[in-house]
Structures are given as C-alpha cells and as structure tokens.
Prior knowledge:
By secondary structure, the chain is mainly alpha-helical. It contains eight helices and two strands. It has helices at 2-27, 30-55, 59-75, 79-89, 98-120, 145-165, 169-182, 188-206, and strands at 125-130, 133-138. Helix 2 (30-55) runs antiparallel to helix 3, helix 2 (30-55) packs antiparallel against helix 4 (79-89) and helix 3 packs antiparallel against helix 5 (98-120). The radius of gyration is 18 Å and the shape is globular.
Amino acid sequence: MVSLVFAVFALVHLCLTAWLVRLALTRRSPFVWIAALVAAGLVYDNGIVALGSTLGEGPLLYALNLPRFFVHALVTPLLVVFAHGAARDAGLGWARHRAAGAVFAGAAVLLIAYGVVFELAGLSLVAGSEGDALRYSAADPSPPVPSIAAILVLVGVGLALAVSRREPWMLAGAAVMFLAAALPSAPLAVGNLGEVALIAGLALTARRMGTGLPRVAAGA
C-alpha cells in the first residue's frame, strides 16, 4: 500500500513537471525551468521508492537510490534562484537590482557546495523499509541544510509575493513543505506529500512569471 502511495506521488509530480515545462515554454521564463527540473527529480525520487519492493534489496536498487540524494543536494538549492526570478518577474523593486540576483545565485552555489561536502562526500546507504516500500537511506543521516535553507527562502519570498502582489501560492506550498518536514517521527510519505504541495505552489506561481517584462512600469 505504501509503495502505491509513492507511485501516485510520482504520477502527480510527472503531471506537474509537464505543466511546468509547458509554462516554461509559453511564459519564456528561464526560472520556470528550474522548478520543472526539481519536479522531474521528484518523479524519479518517488518512482524509485515505489519500485523498491519490486526490485528487491541489492546492488541495482542501491545504485538507483543514489541519484535521489544528488537531486536533493544539487538541484533543490536552485529553488533559491527560482524564488528570485518569481520576485523579479512580479516586479518587486528589490528583486530587479543586479545585486539581488547575484546574492540569490551566490546563496544557491554555497548551498550546493555544502551539499557536496557534507551530504554527498562519503555517502553510504543502508536498506530500510516503511510498510511495503523498500528504499536505501543515508547510513549516517544529517539535517538536509541545503533543502531546509531553500524552503526558508521560498517562504520569505512567498510572503513578499503574498503581501505585495496577493499571490499566496509559493508561500502556501513552501509552508506546507516546511511543516511536513518538521513533524517529528513523521512517515516518509508525509514529507513527500509536502513536496507535492510545494511543487504545486511553484507551478501556480509560475503561471504569472515570464513574458520578458515585470508586471509594473519600469522605474516603479
């Protein structure tokens, strides 16, 4: 039953990925491609967990689980850049300065570097199960600092969008993700449900992004 839940999550993320790709093409925003990339990574993440019990414990499942950790350490921090893009495309004054773009991009690079050094270097996985779902997880887990920091940035920028532009979707999705991840001893499926809410919130935000110009007059 748990494997089926993750299969459903994978299918939902696949639909969200297709939607984000379409938005990236129609809205002509490079930032939307970042959200599409994260969503595609979550299709893989949930799909491998869903297939775990079918494939069985062994070298193949071990190898297939490794990219899950690379996605979270290397791709998720790019959502910091997406947050800046959403704010810039919404016409928020502070986001339209080059310095703001440099700060957000630099933060993403630092978070990725942290993930490489503290999460990927020396990574070792051990098999574990939750219900009928079989997956490999870190043998010596540590707090996912890059993912947590990226979510907090999304919450902050989402709050600015909700207050200034009445666009609550990024804030809502990021807040649900943060609360789901913060629940003590919560099943893995709860955190992954939070990821569905997050990507849905980003997709709803992306509907208003792009077109090449901010939605306020230049110099406002």
